[in-house]
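Retro notes, item 3 of 5
We never archived the inputs for the FE2/S2 (inorganic) cluster complex last cycle. Fixing that now. Sequence and ligand:
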Amino acid sequence: MSAEPPAETAAPPPLGRRTVLRGAAGAGAAGAAGLGLAACGKTSSDLPTKPVDLGASSDVPVGGAKLYRDDKVVVAQPQQGTFKAFSAVCTHQGCVVDSVDGTTISCPCHGSQFNALTGAVLQGPATRALPAVTVKETGGRLTAG
Ligand code: FES
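Structure as it came back at the time:
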């Protein structure tokens, strides 16, 4: 007779949560929210899975970045005409980042910071970089996803 439930039905260990977060990045956060992401109050849902029009590319400063919070994307323009985009969903526990100051992206939930030009973690508790998102400029407009 076993007193403990199988590992799949027990509360997941931290590594399991990370795995779920990775899955949530592409498949939705419904399951992840059930694992405590709602505690942040500003949790993620999906990354762009289809092209999203972000508007004029001129809105993104050269050498800086712009947050498109509703679309959960940060777009940077390291050099004139070169755009990079990253998920705005924090890799710590799934909150959507809320500010970009120069090239520093900040998460309001626990203070993680990321480099807007590379997605790299500048300050924890997040340990993983923001995932890159495809972005292209066409006719002066940006499309992500
Ligand atoms: S969710 Fe914890 S720092 Fe972003």
